[in-house]
């Protein structure tokens, strides 16, 4: 029988017996590596196969070696999530941004208003484009890519940037819709 845990989601949260084996392997791997299972892994696993499909793409974009640095991908996550006011993603990816940059102040500023963070030119261009594509996708034109090229981004990096922005806009909406609550561990992660 599934466990009812309204403290992390507005929907029913499945138990181990309710999810595919791939989900339980991911839960176990996360618990071993992080010391906890991220609430997003528990709540979205309500539809196990759909969750695994999302996770495979998310993991590829955000956690694997790519064309952008880990810190740049997490910057995008926090900018987009802050604009969308997605509590779960802002808190959890703020923790990851702190980890990859070692900077607790900038991560917090980016989460509230990235313009108040003293970002280097390249990161500022990334944040500006992430905000534009998040707030006004109907206004985006090919000319909006020029500032990214001016800071040295190539087409592979720009494509990855766009994909990460899109992933977080989708994920923010899912997390917000189900009332996903961040794990307590994220609040203190990488603050010392």
UniProtKB/TrEMBL annotation:
Per its record, how is this protein called by name?
Peroxidase-related enzyme
Tell me the keywords, alphabetical order: Oxidoreductase, Peroxidase
Keyword Glycoprotein attributed: no
Biological source species: Ornithinimicrobium ciconiae
**Superkingdom, taxonomy of origin:** Bacteria
**Leader peptide range in chain numbering:** none
A GO term, aspect molecular function: peroxiredoxin activity
**Carboxymuconolactone decarboxylase-like domain: residues covered:** 50-100
Claim: NAD is one of the keywords in the record: no
